[in-house]
């Protein structure tokens, strides 16, 4: 109790508080100097010379904070010589990401060779990322293919996901002559082909116009234990429609449904777009109703394909009504659609309809260009319809677009 009274008296006198403030100020100043210290590359490289045990997380932290990519390889070799540390996949992945960002792809090759010589255990996910770097960042597909084929040398067998990644890169870059070679390597790599693999191959064959070969693959899929899905059939239907074989595309759709695979919105969009490109817009509109009855709801692409079909068929009044229906269902037409509709209505001197579409266009947030105003003005002065002309002039004046034209 006496001790407590003594310290209470000191606190009241202010002695303890003053010293506490002095200590706090000193500590804060020291902490501030510590935090303000610039941790540059030299600081982090110095940590590699630490004589105590260096944990894997500490190594990752050092290389994460290393800014200069030129220092990566020498620093990696330095840390590899330590007796208390052996590089693992996490470090290799970190360094490869940093080297890829710096576009130092030759250093990535060197790192992979070191990993192989050190028998470092690397996963399929690691190689998947490396292959994507070679293909998408370095634009070096040959090296991506080599990495896939060399994976067993690292005691790692690729999954079908990694295999399909390479196939898809080849299809996207239209290197069709190489696709077959990679496809034939599947058994050597222990790959069991899946539906996605066949979809990629069918897409490639369709792109280069080999539709018969694409259908042959479709027939081969069940023999390989794979079942075609909506993407498989949609790819084939898109190729048929692109080549003007719309009726055959509908036959494929019927075959698809009879096989227990039901079309999705993308499938319907392909068929509707194919009909509209052939001027069969009425059939496209009927197919839209069937689409809804089958429980597949249209999206903006569906409506836009039909709207373009109406416009290209010079059915401008029907297009005006269709635009109103799209807006009511929350599917806004494109700016080009409005322009084409207004141009078409002006060509037929339908100023009242032009007024409606122009107002819809403005309310949807699109600003008509000078060419559109010119068309409207020409139509107005040809018809000399004073009432509609006055409304259109007022609307144009609100947007400050017509003033410069009149002047």
TrEMBL record:
InterPro entries: PPR_rpt, TPR-like_helical_dom_sf
Signal peptide: none
Pfam families: PPR_2, PPR_3
Top-rank taxon, per record: Eukaryota
Residue ranges crossing the lipid bilayer per the database entry: none
Xref: Gene3D superfamilies: Tetratricopeptide repeat domain
UniProtKB keywords: Repeat
Keyword Repeat assigned: yes
PPR repeats: from-to residues: 194-228, 229-263, 264-298, 299-333
PANTHER family, alphabetized: PENTATRICOPEPTIDE REPEAT-CONTAINING PROTEIN, PPR CONTAINING PLANT-LIKE PROTEIN
Name of the protein described by the UniProt record: Pentatricopeptide repeat-containing protein
Source organism of the structure: Dioscorea zingiberensis
Lineage: Eukaryota, Viridiplantae, Streptophyta, Embryophyta, Tracheophyta
